[in-house]
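To fix ideas at the outset, we first show an illustrative case, written as a sequence plus integers encoding its fold:
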Amino acid sequence: MSILQNLRQVKKELLNEKHPLAHEKIQFRKTYAIGFAMLVCVNGYPSEMAKESLKKQITLLDLPPEFKKLAISVAMEAESQTIHNVLQTLHEAQHKYIFMLDLYGYAQKDHKITEKEQELLVLFEELFQLSYEEVQFIRGFRLAMLKKDTELATKVVQTAFEQNVGVTLQELSYFLPGFEYQERLTQMTLLAGQKKKLGHATYLTGEVIVGKGAELDLNGMNITFGNEATIIVDGGVIKADGVRFIASLDANKTMLSLRNMGITKINDAHFFGANNVRAIEMNNAKVELDSCSFEKCFTEERGGAIYFTNSEHFVLRNCIFEHNSTLGKGGSMYIAGTEAKHMTSKSFFSRITGKVQKVKLVVEGCQFKESRADRSGALHMYDAEISIRDTVFDSCSSRAGGAAIDTLNCTMNASHNTFTKCRAALNEAVVVLGNTKGATEDSLGRFELCEPKNVVMK
């Protein structure tokens, strides 16, 4: 953006800024402003700078600017009835918290609180009959405001939740711009009969294991993965519709592992791999993904975004894969239905015994954009029954094998797909079909600006 565009954007944000209680009735807002004016006037008649602060507060409360004069007049008198009106108007806990943070924000803006200001703040805490835990929350968060420290703010809020202080989060970013609360979770194991529902955005720094008969409900949450963070569902149930799975730069494990599960459906989930980790591993699981997205997922070995094996049922509809990659096979997905050395050598499969099953894979209405791999740019499929239709492969590439699709020992039913600007290595093709029946270049779909060849049969 240009300098002028940035200035216009900042102007728009400032002019549109409103106080968290600007939607309340006008008499509520007037009483609130008078209460705020008491602090402005506590050291005597307010200076011009103090008047400007009060004027800004009145504007943010969506009150007429001329109300400033009346607010000062009433606050200077601070009659008993006026104080009772403030206390009665701000009877709800959230109103008290917002008011106190407003007062602290004004009192500490010059990095010092006068003796009279401090006494007024303490008196309001007492008059509001705030509990010890509520006072600790307010004072802790005001310190975070002073230091502009979102990490400290997070700790303060988490402690408040642990002490059953009824904090609502959406107002806090008004007092500390850029603050977004994330609950910290180091590790957790759910056993049979146990259920856990996350109610806040969460930063994960360890393993969450959901065992057989247990349930983890993440619906609608943001989950950020730090060092050693992963969610393993082994025989349990996961609810993950509308979840944003976000890898931090410290993430180093696959975000979500699904094992030994019946039909699991996930809708509208979004995975951001930070060019650092894989999104999902699935083993002995029947999974259906609808309207999910996978962006910048990465692994060194196989399946940049998804690794699926030892299972017989996998359906993807209307999913989007963008900028996923691997140094191995399958920039976006590695699908395998046959036992191989790499499957049994990894700890992920250490508890798997017996012969793996043939994968039945359905891909409908999906998009694979700029997917890259050493071999098999977007999809590598091994020993599978495949149905791919109405799917777009755009600018996918690989150093060997198929730039978009590479198969071995498969049957394929493909139609109405589009391959655009995909690029394979010399003597390779966009689609490489190894011992695969049912698919032809004509049935696969339309090829546009692809190199060097569209299809090779091996």
In short: The two ends are 50 Å apart (CA to CA). Confidence is low (pLDDT under 50) at residues 347-354. The CA atoms of residues 116 and 181 lie 33 Å apart.
